Amino acid sequence: MGNPQGSFIWYELLTSDLAAARSFYQDVMGWNIAERGSDLSDMDYRMIDAPDATVGGAMEITAEMREGGARPTWLGYICVEDVDAVLAAIVADGGTVWMPANSIPNVGRIALVTDPQGAPFYIMKPIPPADSPPDATSTAFDPEKTGHVAWNELTAADHQAVLPFYTRHFGWQPCGAMSMGEMGNYQFIKHADVRIGAMMDRPKNGPPPHWSYYWRVDDIDAATKRATAGGATILHGPAEVPGGDYITLATDPQGAIFAMVGKQLEA
Hints:
- The structure is a single chain.
- This protein has helices at residues 18-29, 63-67, 83-92, 159-170, 220-229, and strands at 8-15, 32-33, 45-49, 54-60, 73-79, 96-104, 108-114, 120-126, 149-156, 173-179, 185-191, 194-201, 210-217, 233-240, 246-251, 257-262.
- By secondary structure, the chain is an alpha+beta fold.
- It has an eight-stranded mixed sheet. The chain has an eight-stranded mixed sheet with strand order 10-11-12-9-13-16-15-14, with helices on one face.
- Strand 11 and strand 12 form a beta hairpin.
- Helix 1 (18-29) packs antiparallel against helix 5 (220-229).
- The mean pLDDT is 91.
């Protein structure tokens, strides 16, 4: 069985300096990012390889995208069975279309949208690679594997109000919550009985609603030091979270928010 509707299947970095971002993330994350774009389109789109699998892509923001307000960011792709039908349902439910549905040969059909509170994400019906079985499953999201996204976190204007939107379109369900004091609850979410992340309200004067993606690293302290040395701005952490992991939230040198999760190894 392939990825069911509602699965996170891909992650994409939009950046203002692709060469600099490639150098930064290869050093911090240990990824291998292609030196040149793939042959799948006329864009300079670089594949991001973790040690065991391809987990995403990176591209430089074009002049046209910049004029439309694009800025450095990470975006997630959510799998759907019918992009056009889901797109119409999202619009009817208060979402916004940032990029209309279009088909990429040998890749799939995609659209870029926002939820009703403005957090952007892609929806996609992928075409498995020619050398893969028709029911091939993406593993870009994997809670345990190094170099993969282990946690998807929505910072919303009102997470309780927007949760039903995601439940209706992607089948996600709440699965417990953790109090964060004055910041309110941290609402855990699951999909197909797997805890995939959480939702929370944005702090006052914080950034607009957005998704953050936590990439798993082997050693959170070492990765945070590499990020700092590479020009990242650390916003929070390393800080312990329930379960024994530690997290670091940062912006990369071009300004994209990124996050890491991992163990704190003894010196």
